[in-house]
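Q: Hi! First time asking for a complex rather than a single chain. Here are the components, and I think there are two in total. Is that enough to go on?
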Amino acid sequence: QVQLVQSGAEVKKPGASVKVSCKASGYTFTSYGISWVRQAPGQGLEWMGWISAYNGNTNYAQKLQGRVTMTTDTSTSTAYMELRSLRSDDTAVYYCARLDMMVRGVYAFDIWGQGTMVTVSS
Amino acid sequence: DIQMTQSPSSLSASVGDRVTITCQASQDISNYLNWYQQKPGKAPKLLIYDASNLETGVPSRFSGSGSGTDFTFTISSLQPEDIATYYCQQYDNLPRYTFGQGTKLEIK
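A: Yes, that's all I need. Here is the structure of the assembled complex.
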């Protein structure tokens, strides 16, 4: 079945970097985009950016420009999100989600990963 | 940046009630609006895309309407399994996305 499976929980110190993976299965990876969304404890959803698995084009939230990099490995159908210079307010659950722009022309996130908890603490 | 104002922030209703949540954009976004349901400890789930299109497999008691700046999400007859937080999401042509603040729905 169509699914996104994310890497496990991470604990990082302030100033460090984290790289979260998102492995896709059950569909043609390069026909879709992958978006990343995070949710701080008890808070709402925050869009971080997206990457086209077709051509690698990216679009990042202005707030995270310069600290975030999204990449894909089409040979393993895996997307990655790296966040650098971590601060305590980056503590959140990080989700990847499929973006169905090319197949259905739907600019919504129709399949989600299970989430990865990233804790930033000294 | 486009701001989204979602209301109410929380809502208590009885099983069988009609429930309505609104989302207002700070400028005209045409029909570029989606709705998601998030249950505690779970990833969000897409319910409605492009303001009024029901995602495949989503029960027909869920619906969405609106265009321009004012949008409405409706549950026609509340079921116990609908207890969740609901988010609107707007997008532009790049696309970039913004979520509303969320509406926590509880059973009375």
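A: The mean pLDDT of chain A is 97. Let me know if you'd like any chain examined more closely.
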